[in-house]
Amino acid sequence: FTLLEGWAFHYRLLEDGRRQITRVLLPGDFIGFQAELGGPAENAAQALTDCRFCVFPHEAAKAMISEQPELAIRLIWIVARDEARVEELLTSIGRRSARERVALFLLELYYRMRLRDTQPLGSEIPLPLTQEHIGDALGLTSVHVNRTLRELREAGLLIVSKRTLQILDPDGLVIEAG
User: At the N or C end, where does the chain have fewer CB atoms within 10 A?
Assistant: First the structure.
């Protein structure tokens, strides 16, 4: 699938019900690559907003790739980019402080949305994620996310309110993100 409109996320549930969000999905993102085609899905996806998708049946996708090698190269690039994001997330969870994690996570979402939109830098972007979602993506409790967002707001770096994100000081937030 390609997500055409809306926000969603990939996640994995542990046996005890805990959730790890592994990717936030934005318009243009490809969904559904998995290690074993035809095997059981290892992750699930959930919509955060109303979404619209373009479906690529396996056989049609194989035919398109055979007929259009440039499409195969593009798909390899998409998979490599997603792998790099997951590696960055793993590094964040394993080695960055909560403040660095939240700063980097919000910067990445902000710039990914900016690439899809023509609004000037400093404009708000929608942020349909809750503090619980952010915590589930970064290995933090929602209380810790709340405290960290407050610290970043008080430092004059960003504003998160009414399901929107505005980055006031991109350079300062980059420094916070390490």
Answer: C
The H helix count followed by the E strand count for the chain is 6, 8
pTM: 0.88
- Which SS3 state, helix, strand or coil, does residue 28 take? coil
Rounded Cα distance between 175 and 178, Å, is: 5
Q: Are 109 and 125 contacting, i.e. CB atoms less than 8 angstroms apart? A: yes
**Residuewise pLDDT in 10s, the chain (178 residues):** 889 999 999 999 999 999 999 999 999 898 877 666 666 777 899 999 999 999 888 788 788 888 988 988 988 888 898 889 889 988 999 999 999 999 999 999 999 998 877 666 667 899 999 999 999 999 999 999 999 999 999 999 999 999 999 999 999 999 999 8
Burial class (CB in 10 A: 0-12, 13-18, 19+), 78: middle
DSSP 8-state secondary structure symbol assigned to residue 139? T
Radius of gyration of the chain (CA): 17
